[in-house]
Amino acid sequence: MADTLEFNEIYQEVKGSMNDGRLRLSRQGVIFKNSKTGKVDNIQASELAEGVWRRVALGHGLKLLTKNGHVYKYDGFRESEFDKLSDFFKAHYRLELAEKDLCVKGWNWGTVRFGGQLLSFDIGEQPVFEIPLSNVSQCTTGKNEVTLEFHQNDDAEVSLMEVRFYVPPTQEDGVDPVEAFAQNVLSKADVIQATGDAICIFRELQCLTPRGRYDIRIYPTFLHLHGKTFDYKIPYTTVLRLFLLPHKDQRQMFFVISLDPPIKQGQTRYHFLILLFSKDEDISLTLNMNEEEVEKRFEGRLTKNMSGSLYEMVSRVMKALVNRKITVPGNFQGHSGAQCITCSYKASSGLLYPLERGFIYVHKPPVHIRFDEISFVNFARGTTTTRSFDFEIETKQGTQYTFSSIEREEYGKLFDFVNAKKLNIKNRGLKEGMKQSYDEYADSDEDQHDAYLERMKEEGKIREENANDSSDGSGEETDESFNPGEEDDDVAEEFDSNASASSSSGDGDSDRDEKKPAKKAKIVKDRKPRKKQLESKKGKDPNAPKRPMSAYMLWLNANREKIKSDHPGISITDLSKKAGELWKAMSKEKKEEWDRKAEDARRDYEKAMKEYSVGSKSESSKTERSKKKKKKQEKQMKGKAEKKGAASKSLSSSKSPAKNMSESFKSKEFVSSDESSSGESKKEDSEEEGVASLPPSSEESASGSD
């Protein structure tokens, strides 16, 4: 029997939402780690009272009840895992894992049982549904009726908001069944009621998110933020983490409270409560409790009368009431000596704090990223200037965070910190003088030449040269890519080669005339290969045979529906993961059967491709023949056009002697009008035609009269 059992992709039901995570069962107890928030639930083996196995929507589920009344539900198990879990419970926890199915008769009349923090509606001995009373936000009573209202679940598209129970009257005197029902609910419900006096009040504290000044009233079970416009009540059970972070100016402190679920204002969700304090602000605090109560409740962590810095008092009280550690920055120190880095996230500037187990960015919007959810980090070149760089973080869920405009001087410190925390680095970045000290991460990246590193080194050398030149005060430009002398020489050579061709035009005109054709020639040369490229990119033929599937894909298509039926509600990504696991676990004999099918499909594809290629060749020969025919027709048309041109030229030459003869017979008016209209080509042509069309008899008679 193994000492531990581990299950991935298990879902824990918390306040109506299913949180994905990993479950581990060991001799000491049960541990569940939430993948989203990183929160760890630890149940000691000695606290377990009962274990129930039942069929649920996501396969099979495990319900654990503890001796102090707490209930934990985990879903996502396979039916085959029951025997393994049952044996483990018997061996290590000395508990029988009972099988209890839910009642699915559809009746709405039954018995309500209160067990610990759970309301169970039963028909006979079988439960129909269960309501964790911590989900209840309000309980109201009416005549023979009790109404339960629930907290809204932001993660779900549809949330159950209200349930009403009809309680029939009983004959027993002195006991109202409706009031008894309501009292049982309210004793365990998560109903926030500001009853009694606050333990202490902090007035007019500056809050960055939600923005404004708030009075903070500290109650035994919740925190009350009272502002001019809004009020927020925050149960201590929703507080996930506490952070105390020094500002870069060393004069202020951030106190950050991480919340899950977040506080809501309309459609806005605040996952972090950020308070800003001045280090110089002091306070004397007196708790609204007597000394015995303070000692009994807080066991020396708080005293009735305390004094000190305001941020110390707030953080100390919160730590004692929430019973969580306060996270502070670790050993990281930036270029300026501060424990944070100035950067921008999205549109706002803020501070990035490298912690011992994650990164936190304040303040707008606040972001907390744990190391265990980071897939890799990346050092990227700044988009606007080379004096800064971007720090990119991608999580295992695929979410990407880009912190931009980080000063170049911070690179070395941040790179060393990331490397020391053994985070996967996508590129090796700017760091110079780095030899083989970080080879342990070579496997995480592709082993190839880092062009980015070489380019950044080149730019660094250029910037150093520019800095040296500017320090001398010369003020001259040192852009090596621009050399005016060389360009002048090129122009002169072009001019000299064509100088003899245009002797009649002036120097300035010849410069212009010769430069223009050179530019045109360049454009034509550049465009030709582009046209060829465009022509070469032809679309895929839809009639071409499809490529054959691999053995795995053939198997997956045949078994997809079966996997879905075995795991109802499984997502597409989980289905592909599951299919991969099943394929990997399949025996060689079964795989060979699918390999044969894949081979047959490949042969069919090759045969179809041969037939397709023969058909495509015949089509291409047809198109070539049609092209040749077209060219032949074009040549014939061109020849006819040339013949017509030659005939028109001979006609004009035969008309020219008649024109010369008629010049002597032009009248004075004709000659003057001809000269005046020399610029009008149409008129001149018409007059010439008129002279040429004079009959020879008239010309002869004119000469005879002279």
Automatic annotation (TrEMBL):
Residues 497-507, 647-664, 691-706 have a biased composition (Low complexity). Residues 458-552, 609-706 are annotated as: Disordered. The lineage of its organism: Eukaryota, Metazoa, Chordata, Craniata, Vertebrata. Belongs to the SSRP1 family. Residues 545-613 bind DNA. It holds the Pfam family SSRP1_C. Keywords: Chromosome, DNA damage, DNA repair, DNA replication, DNA-binding, Nucleus, Transcription, Transcription regulation. The keyword Translocase does not apply. The gene is Ssrp1. This is FACT complex subunit SSRP1. Transmembrane segments: none annotated. Residues 532-544, 634-645 have a biased composition (Basic and acidic residues).
